[in-house]
Specification:
alpha/beta, 6-stranded mixed sheet, single chain
């Protein structure tokens, strides 16, 4: 143990509870402070927990709790808008199955597991200031209360207040050119896909769907020339968005229009503009460090946002367990930066294909079958998914042989 007794975690989404559980396993007490007045159980659409995310969850004994609320997603099938099957690919069979999970259910599972382990989560704590103390950090919240710890971890998302506190010049989120939507609907009468997610590069927009006998789910990424925050997009009635989405997919030879028309307006998840941050220059300062989207925000197109946050939580806990704070933060960044930025860049290339204009779409559709033949080789993307973390292994700064993951 490097002498860290307690930590305060700002942000109670995915990374916050995961970090608290990882720190507890490392012998470090942590309290999570969440800005929402109550549990954010109705926020967000579908996402995936990739095999590497499940490996990270297993490292802190939390995989079973998450797997219980997820559905298997054993492969991804890429299609063109004409219905042509371009490729099918899956993670190596030796790895845990990928899961399709709705964010509110993931949120509830992680929070319930953290509380079961005796971790304190306080709500209604909106951060307004961070102070560097001689031997730690102090957070001040909008209600006038404060919290102090040996370290402060900013797991407060893509618009992180902690990131701005340690680096006022930190980059802002970048709009990807896409708006995000999703919903669950009935699958009655639709051809089932089984545990396979179908991804369609549509004629005008991108559509993903998975259909099982008891439930179907879909998401859509719509090109849009200007940024649109979630609150702005949500001011447009859901009925109107459903009409627009169905119209965009009217020429596609997929179940998109049928699934959109089956969707109740109250079930539509309106995400607004999809965003990323290619590179956050400063991850830590003194006793404060960033985690998850606060440090490495990838767009949803990566399918890796939640998994990367959980990986980072596990690696940060290992580093704080074994090293003094300054060395721990530096080693944590060394272990994580190259990997997460590679995934962010890969997702940005996917976004460019999804948001292609009329001329670019013609080129994309002509070249995609060739590209998919190469992409369909599991060796091309296995590095993302095959990333085991040996929680018990000691962390040695700069040691390339440390068994802390591949890729």
């Amino acid at each position: 143990m490097a002498g860290i007794g307690n930590a305060i975690i700002i942000g109670g989404g995915i990374g916050g509870p995961a970090a608290a559980m990882a720190l507890q396993r490392a012998g470090i007490e942590a309290t999570v402070y969440e800005a929402y007045d109550g549990p954010a159980t109705g926020v967000g659409g579908a996402l995936s927990i990739a095999p590497n995310g499940r490996q990270a969850l297993a490292a802190i004994g939390a995989d079973a709790a998450v797997a219980a609320v997820g559905r298997p997603m054993r492969a991804m099938v890429m299609q063109s808008w004409t219905g042509k099957r371009l490729a099918e690919f899956a993670a190596p069979a030796r790895l845990p199955e990928q899961l399709l999970i709705w964010r509110p259910e993931l949120y509830r599972a992680l929070h319930a597991e953290a509380v079961r382990r005796g971790i304190r989560i306080e709500h209604g704590k909106r951060l307004v200031a961070v102070e560097h103390a001689p031997h730690g950090a102090r957070a001040t919240f909008a209600d006038g209360s404060t919290a102090a710890g040996d370290v402060l971890i900013g797991a407060d998302g893509i618009r992180s207040a902690v990131r701005s506190a340690i680096d006022p010049g930190a980059p802002s989120p970048r709009y990807t050119g896409l708006l995000g939507f999703g919903a669950r609907c009935t699958g009655d009468g639709l051809a089932p896909t089984g545990p396979k997610m179908h991804m369609v590069f549509g004629k005008r927009a991108f559509f993903g769907y998975q259909i099982e006998p008891d439930e179907a789910g879909w998401f859509a990424n719509l090109p849009h020339p200007t940024p649109m925050r979630a609150a702005e997009a949500q001011r447009v009635p859901a009925e109107e968005w459903l009409r627009r989405i169905a119209e965009l997919f009217r020429d596609d030879r997929t179940p998109a229009v049928d699934m959109v028309r089956r969707t109740r307006p109250e079930d539509l998840v309106i995400t607004g503009g999809l965003e990323d941050i290619p590179r956050v220059p400063v991850w830590h300062k003194a006793s404060v460090v960033l985690l998850g989207d606060a440090a490495h925000a990838t767009s949803p197109s990566s399918g890796q946002g939640a998994s990367l946050a959980i990986e980072s939580a596990v690696q940060l806990a290992r580093c704080l367990r074994d090293l003094p704070v300054a060395e721990a933060f530096a080693e944590y960044e060394r272990l994580r930066r190259a990997r997460v930025e590679r995934i962010i860049a890969m997702a940005a290339r996917t976004n460019a294909d999804k948001a292609a204009g009329p001329i670019a779409r013609v080129l994309r559709d002509a070249l995609m079958p060739i590209a998919m033949k190469a992409f369909g080789d599991p060796k091309k993307f296995a590095w993302q998914f095959d990333h085991p973390i040996d929680f018990a292994a000691p962390v040695v700064p700069g040691d390339r042989t440390t068994p802390s993951g591949r890729g």
